[in-house]
Structure formats: structure tokens, C-alpha cells
Amino acid sequence: QIFPDSDLASRAAADEIAALIRSRASEQRCCVLGLATGSTPVRVYQELVRQHQDEGLSLENVITFNLDEYLPMAPDAQQSYVRFMQQNLFNHVDIPAQNIHIPDGTIATEDVPNYCRDYEDRIIRAGGIDLQLLGIGRTGHIGFNEPGSTADSITRMVTLDPVTRADAANDFGGIEKVPSHAITMGVRTILQSRRIRLLAFGDHKASIVQRTIEGEVSTDIPATYLQSHSDVQFLLDPDAAALT
Ligand code: GLP
């Protein structure tokens, strides 16, 4: 779907999430959301906060699983995704703290495999992800599933692509300070979500959006795996959609 601008696309995503939260609440059920970081989803979170403050939207029945986190990363560090989520969403809504799950960037390397298996188990125990929000990296990564990630990959430690590290260099004050690794949900974890909504804005995303939607499904562009999902939508602004 191509929207007149990124604000309207963000608003549409937030409206769908809010409607899902409300419909689950009316059935006294939880709503399990998969959440993304980066600049792209910020206005979705702003709109959810606005609806919480102005329209009585409650997130008490919401359980969240974030896609990824740098490794190593202290939760209170400037660039941590824990901090990002607190600042952009969690500090401003009524989601119970125990319902929030973000991969732990302080985990020791030898404990990572067990930790990742447990992250997968926690998603299953929550009932699976109802709606996964995604951005897309210029390498075609979703979460931090870089080129080479397979369709059956699950939550694990990954090595970041040099393009991804270059794109994050500003946030870290230099590419050499960007962590070389991360923990990410896998492609399979993402594809198991019932709905997937990917947002992409700006002309720097136009080429990867075109290759993701129109290209062959390939491990070279992990986002192409989304083509096989039965309920996936791309919400684009005109610049990101320019080449499709
Ligand atoms: C990071 C995140 C991804 C995100 C990507 C794009 O790599 N791990 O989940 O999609 O950045 O970021 P932005 O939205 O700032 O372009």
C-alpha cells in the first residue's frame, strides 16, 4: 500500500494495532505484538501513545517481543533497544513490565544458545505473535537477519553486515564503535507471526523495497522470504515505492 506520506502510513499501522488490541481486550484475551526499532516505526509508537493518552487505548492486555538487540549492549546505553522502546513507547503507556520481552544484550556468549531457545519458548507460551511490525535494512535484513540467513532460522546470535554497521555509525559515533554482533529473532520466528506489517520510508529504501517485492526469493535478501507469508503488507511512502 502506498500512502501519500509516511505520517499517514504510520497512522494506518497504529490504527490496525490499536484495533487488534481493543478486539482482543473485548474478548479478555492478550494481544501479542512483535516490535521493531529504528527510525521507521517511531511515529507508529507516537500514535499509540497519543491514542493511549487521548482515546483511552489501554495496553494492559499487550505482550511484546522485540525483534533484536545489539550484542553486547547495556540496557541503559544510549543506543540500546531497551532504552529506545522505553523512550518511544513503554514509558508512556500502561503495558505491564512483565509483558515486555527484548533480547538481552548483556548475555554471555556461552549462554546465548540457551537464552535464544528460551526466547522462542516464551513467544510460543504467549500464544505466538499476532502482529509483527517490521522495518527493513538496506541489506534486505528484517530484524537483524542479514544476507545468508535461511528461511528456517530461529532466534540466535548473528554477525552484522558492514552496510548495517555503516548505517548505524552515526548513532554510535563511528563505525568502529558499532557492535559486530546482535541477537535477532530468526526468519522462521518472524514468518510464524499471524500478520506482518513492514514499513519503509524514503528514497534510500526504494531499491531494497523493489528487490524485496519483485525479486526472486533468495537468502541474499532475507526480506524476500516475506513473499511466502499469507498475511503480509508493506506500508510505503511514495519515495520508498518509487521503483516498484
Ligand atoms: C536496524 C533494526 C531493524 C530496522 C533497521 C532499519 O537494523 N535492527 O529492525 O528495520 O535498523 O532502520 P531504520 O528504520 O532506521 O531505517
Automatic annotation (TrEMBL):
GO annotation, biological process: carbohydrate metabolic process; N-acetylglucosamine catabolic process
Keyword Hydrolase among UniProt keywords: yes
GO molecular function terms noted in the UniProt entry: glucosamine-6-phosphate deaminase activity
Keywords: Hydrolase
EC id: 3.5.99.6
Domain Glucosamine/galactosamine-6-phosphate isomerase: 5-229
One matching Pfam family: Glucosamine_iso
NCBIfam families according to UniProt: nagB
Name under which the protein is recorded: Glucosamine-6-phosphate deaminase
Species: Rubripirellula lacrimiformis
